[in-house]
Amino acid sequence: MAGYHYLFLINPAAGQPKRPDLEEKLAAAVTRAGSPHTCEIRRTDRAGHGAELAAAFAKRHGAQAIVVACGGDGTAHEIAQALLGTDAALAILPLGTGNDFARAFLSSLDVDQLLSRLTMPQIRPIDVLEVNGRMCLNITSFGFDTRVQSLMMAINRRLRWLGRLSYPLAIVIGLLGHRTFSFSCALDGGPRENVHYILAALCNGRFYGGGFNPAPGASVEDGKIEWVQVDPLSLPRILGLIPKYKQGRHLGDPAVHSRTISEGHVWAMPGQVLLGNVDGELFETTEITFKVWPAAIRFAFF
Fold first, then answer.
1. Domains and CATH numbers, the chain
2. pLDDT value at position 217?
3. Cα–Cα distance measured from residue 222 to residue 224, given in angstroms and rounded to the nearest whole number
4. Where are the beta strands (DSSP E) in the chain?
5. pLDDT tens per residue, range 107-121
């Protein structure tokens, strides 16, 4: 059979502890005796380097190329942008802190298990979300969780050893401050309405923040996203909802609103800005336009 050409792009800044035998294991997984596959292994050394390498590899090998993002959600986001519009497939080896996109769509988060399945991928097209011209692979969110994301990044810069514990710590710190936000929105061509919320999320994937599950029914293969919005709540109500939100059991709560949509527009209130993040990358703006691009990128499920 014809083999695939694998490019492993390793992000040295990924959140998990360094694996001294990683490159050896990657090569062995692909090029074992009798294998028809080839592989290249590169370590990225700057922002955008992985995207450059992925784009060049996709152009060289076309539909036989599988580019493996070896890192976290940020690494996957960067590589996915480079592969849009190409015939190459994106794969993910979860070596980051949260690994939220991989958590939803891979068979395991155990790297050794995934390596044993790497050369038997099921390659299918998946949807992506466009937000103000930027691609979102997983989730775009606003409000409290963006504030938490900002706090988590600050914690990680100073206390990197905390790993996944940095997100719950950021939540605790965030709860001590401002918790009510506002915008206006029009979804799927509907009327414009004002919204007061503690958090809102546009979900192509199911998880973010190291395992929080705002959209347990989200799919990357249905041409839709899940809009999830939570009303402003008292601190006791928030504390009671957080564990349900993490486990994906929050959708029956009267303060939680969810619907399946394909496009929309969100505006900041006069004199304010929208605080948000796209796949963990923070932004501030006065308005956003978003829409789903169905089957926009090939993805290797394994």
1. 5-120 (3.40.50.10330), 136-293 (2.60.200.40)
2. 96
3. 5
4. 5-10, 38-43, 65-71, 89-94, 122-131, 134-136, 139-143, 181-187, 193-197, 199-203, 225-230, 256-261, 263-268, 274-278, 281-285, 287-301
5. 999 999 999 999 999
> Are 198 and 148 in contact, with CB atoms under 8 Å apart?
no
Q: Which residues pair with 275 in a beta bridge?
A: 284
Instruction: Pull the structure tokens for residue 204.
Output: 């192509």
CA distances (Å), 54 to each of 10, 91, 124, in order?
A: 12, 11, 18
Degrees, nearest 5: CA angle 106-109-115: 80
pLDDT in tens, 206-218: 999 888 999 999 9
Confidence grade of residue 98 (pLDDT, cut at 50, 70, 90): confident
Token output for 158: 């100073």
Q: Considering the entire predicted model, what is its pTM?
A: 0.90
**CA proximity to 183, closest of 273, 70, 83:** 273
CB atoms within 10 A of CB 61: 20
Which is nearest to 228 in space by CA: 194, 193, 204? 204
